[in-house]
Each structure stands twice: as structure tokens, then as C-alpha cells.
Design a protein that fits this description.
Helix content is about 90%, strand content about 0%. With about 70 residues, the protein is mainly α.
Length: about 70
């Protein structure tokens, strides 16, 4: 695996971790009835998921560049 792909996977993992933290916070706030804070954390989690997906896409592209040529 190229360094470029590995770095992309690491960045994706970091964003997934952050998304999970925000989803956990959103759940806590929903349970407490604080829907405004819950929405904030849910929105932030979604943004981290988008970043993770983007980095995963970069990893796939790196793989294709490295292994897709015959």
C-alpha cells in the first residue's frame, strides 16, 4: 500500500472516531431532552462522516492508480 493511501485511511479513521464521539454526545443530549445540543452534535458527526468518506475515496483512487494499470 502506498504512503498516500495509508495516510488517507488514517485520516478517514480519525474522522470516523470524531463522528462516533459526536454521535455519543448527541444521544446523551437527546436523552436529556436538550434537542438543540443534540442537533449540533449530530450535525458535527455528519460533517466528520463526510470528511471520512472523502478520505476513503482518496485511498480508493490511490489504490486504482497503483494497481489499476495493466
Amino acid at each position: 500500500m502506498s504512503k498516500k493511501a495509508a495516510d488517507s485511511h488514517k485520516h478517514a479513521a480519525q474522522h470516523h472516531t470524531e463522528a462516533a464521539k459526536h454521535h455519543t454526545e448527541a444521544a446523551k443530549h437527546h436523552e436529556a431532552g436538550n434537542h438543540e445540543k443534540a442537533a449540533h452534535h449530530a450535525h458535527t458527526a455528519a460533517a466528520h462522516t463526510e470528511h471520512a468518506t472523502e478520505h476513503a475515496g482518496h485511498a480508493r483512487k490511490s489504490h486504482a492508480e497503483e494497481h489499476g494499470k495493466k
